[in-house]
Amino acid sequence: MSDSGRGHDERSLRWLRRAVKLPYLWLLLFFLAPFLIILKISVAEPVVAQPPFTALLEWGANGFEGLRVTFLNYAFLFQDGYYGIIYLSSLKMAAIGTLLCLLLGYPMAYYIARQPPERRNLLLLAVILPFWISFLLRVYAWIGLLNNRGVINKLLLWTGLIDRPIQMLYNDFAVYLGIVYSYLPFMILPLYANLERLNLDLLDAAADLGARRWQAFVDVTLPLSVPGIIGGCLLVFIPAVGEFTIPALLGGADTLMIGRVLWDEFFTNRDWPVASAVSVVLLLLLIAPIMWFQRLQSREQEAGR
Amino acid sequence: MSDANPTPLVRIEGVSKRFDGVLAVDDVTLEIMKGELFAILGGSGCGKTTLLRMLAGFEHPTAGRILIDGTDMTEVPPYERPVNLMFQSYALFPHMTVEQNVAYGLKKERVPEPQIRERVAEMLAMVKLGPLAGRKPDKLSGGEKQRVALARSLVKRPKLLLLDEPLAALDRKLREHTQFELANIQYQLGTTFVVVTHDQDEAMTLASRIAVMHAGKIAQVGTPGEVYEYPANRYVAGFVGNINLVEGRITGRSNGRLVLRSDTLDAELAVACDDPAGLDGEVCVAVRPEKITISREAPAGADRNVVKGVVRDLGYFGDQSLYRVRTKSGAVVQVSAQNLRRSAKLTVEWDDEVFLSWEVGSTILLRT
Amino acid sequence: MKAGRSPLALVSVVAFGYALLYVPIASVVIYSFNDSRLVTLWGGFSLRWYASLLDDQKLLEAALLSLRIAFLSATFATALGAIVALALHRLGRLRGRLLLSGMVTAPLVMPEIITGLSLLFLFISMANLIGWPMNRGATTITLAHVTFSMAYVVVVVRSRLAAMDESLEEAAMDLGGRPLAVFFDVTVPMLLPALVSGWLLSFTLSLDDLVISSFVSGPGATTLPMYIFSKVRLGVTPDINAITTIIIAMVALSVGIASFVTHRRRPDTAR
């Protein structure tokens, strides 16, 4: 007769059951349905019409006539390898960016976790604060710093370390920098949450058994922080693959990232079916990491239930 | 401990609770009298907490009824029962002061403001927390939090107060003190208390009657003395206090007694038995360690069971000593003896050959 | 976790990390006061770029629009997200639980390009089928923002629910509180910090969104990020520096006030 283990009153649970239908429908409509539509458009043909693609179901004089499906768009994507290269390039850039983010973020999270509580909160706040300032504006801020006549080049020239300005902007380097910079908080927070829970007694035990500090780190801390590492990396990698703003503002003409390509494909070429196909393939590439992330999330959440 | 008015306040009739196929409470029937301090005792997983929550209204029985003061309350929600629960974690509202916490229940009853203030002040005085009325729970010690929880439950003058492991979170000194306080308050107010606990000391000292629960069923109901000296079955015998259990073969019956042969103790034992019907072959008896006399000389006096053995372990506690004595066949008997004579020397030492003896009447016959 | 003194190497890396985070911000703030247009030249201290902001009609309109959308979407996202969080946490058996959980986790990592494109197509299809929304703009942007912000609110509220002592609500019921009273007396106060941070998070995300807004918006509805992006694609523009500095100041102020408030009222949450 009773429902959840904790015995919440049946009546209030019933209300909750009814109430959750609203967000459920909302998500079905505004999150799930769009994906189905993209799928549908990706198998349609482009036409000069409004909307600029053919309908899925053919209706003729005698009613339902058939499905009008074409895989031309997908074929197009892979016919000359152009898109293939872009996908790979996006995955590669996201992966490298994630790795760099991890290399910087891990020591920071580690350090913060070791501080006394008051300092910890302050340091965390300092990490999160930039996040509250517009993402767009922060990426933009790098333009002024990185360009050939920008502050960094001027500094290097002035100190004599270089005699010609280094091309730091409108290339892959700038994009990597942008990724690390923008996603750093997303890497640090899950890492910190994990490291903060680490029982220091374990390190003492390792030391007692003969491990040096760095050995204890490699043998105890590192393995235990793997869930945090995975969480942080997924949280950075997945959105980074489809990133638009960073390559658009900081990348060069030869910086190949699928987000930018998709934007151009849509706004300039107006080829909706191809744009849809591009999205579907991108989604397929990311399905595995997304599901991994969801598994991690639900495990975290269920554990606390 | 108050004189129980022999009218049942609570009637639990054939109550069972099933969770996903697991039977947590199995056909429990119990009566709790008005004004009693009743304890439900059992290990973890025995179903006592589930039973408590059904009394409070947080779970609905899968079968059976619960009647409180004559009314069927089985389906009644917790906010409509004249029952209050003191949570093990105290569950004090952190965003309210002590005073607001205690007043909450009265507010929900729509008691007029001035009366609320009066009753809250009265209750806080009773638990000696008056000066702390304006504090928030995070500024209170464990013992203080408990008193707030108690005050909050009692201020509504419930017919029944349920206490979930009330002494579990307290340290020893505080535990003893609180035990007496709880008993006092119960006596003063005359409210019926039901305490759920896994600690037999807690149950024995607080309660006027105990129900021992095991695997969802009631193993025995009785006063502490009954449960201790006259356990109904092996489980209760072993759960409450220490006990020596012996299997024996019936070798004879005569005027109100059974004689058995125990191979493990290498002895013949007699046990009082008025109704030997249904008993045949193997039977289980038991004797409490403190009922056994230990000595190096053979015991005088008739009408005693005697066992011989060698002292294997000795624990000296000052006021008493605990012995573990090994018989020839390898069984170990626990004996506890008060050190009645003042002497620094041990009367019985390791590896001594000793005689263990106890009155026949001290032998417990366990049929199940 | 707490330990002894950290090695120098660690501290230097951490210092570098913080520098990385704040150097661009600092440089923007400094150059917003630069009299010269060029980043390369320091022309003296000046507030002219701030003044020019007030003349920029389009900017002010865009800012207002963004604020309205952010406010609305944050509020709806928080309400809907809180319901989902409560449902996922409390309802043991829920039909379609896996799907709900998935739909509310995916937006956290979904590339905005995909979300934006798919939502645009949805709105167009809807317009074709039922005639609404005919004009895309503030409404469609708000709907889109609510959808992805919800995911963040669910995360925040769920972690708070996990840390909450459930027996508090039972205690309230035991003392005579009916479910509705318990919800307002105990649940909401306990969840309030999470609801507030969820709201702020949604507000920030909405205010900051470029990609999704660009896809689902229509003529006449230009949000602040869209406006800034169009100007910034071509390079550094000094008045953008001024806007950035203003936003930084507002954020710093809000955070300062928030910390002050929470420090004065010592956190009295149940641990």
Structure characterization notes:
The complex is a heterotrimer of chains A (305), B (368) and C (271). With 305 residues, chain A is an all-alpha fold. Helix content of chain A is 72%, strand content 3%. Chain A is built from 14 helices and two strands. Chain A has a two-stranded antiparallel sheet with strand order 1-2. In chain A, helix 2 packs antiparallel against helix 14 (272-303). The longest helix of chain A is centred in the N-terminal third of the chain and has 33 residues, at 82-114. Chain A is globular, with a radius of gyration of 25 Å. Chain B has helices at residues 48-56, 98-108, 113-126, 142-154, 172-189, 200-206, 224-229, 234-239; strands at 5-19, 22-34, 37-41, 63-68, 71-72, 83-86, 160-164, 192-197, 209-214, 217-222, 244-254, 257-262, 267-272, 282-287, 293-295, 304-316, 320-326, 332-338, 353-359, 364-366. The longest helix of chain B is centred in the middle third of the chain and has 18 residues, at 172-189. Chain B has two domains: 5-239, Rossmann fold, CATH 3.40.50; 244-366, Beta Barrel (OB fold (Dihydrolipoamide Acetyltransferase, E2P)). In chain B, strand 4 (63-68) and strand 5 (71-72) form a beta hairpin. In chain B, the strands form four sheets. A six-stranded mixed sheet of chain B has the order 6-7-8-3-9-10, sandwiched between helices. Chain B has a five-stranded antiparallel sheet with strand order 13-12-11-14-20. A five-stranded antiparallel sheet of chain B has the order 15-19-16-17-18, with no helix packed on it. Chain C is mainly alpha-helical and 271 residues long. Chain C folds into two domains: 63-235, MetI-like fold (Orthogonal Bundle), CATH 1.10.3720; 237-266. Chain C has helices spanning 8-32, 48-55, 57-90, 97-105, 112-130, 138-163, 167-174, 179-208, 211-216, 224-232, 238-264. In chain C, helix 1 (8-32) packs across helix 11 (238-264). Classes of the chains: A mainly alpha (305), B alpha+beta (368), C mainly alpha (271). The interface between A and C is large, with 109 and 104 residues.
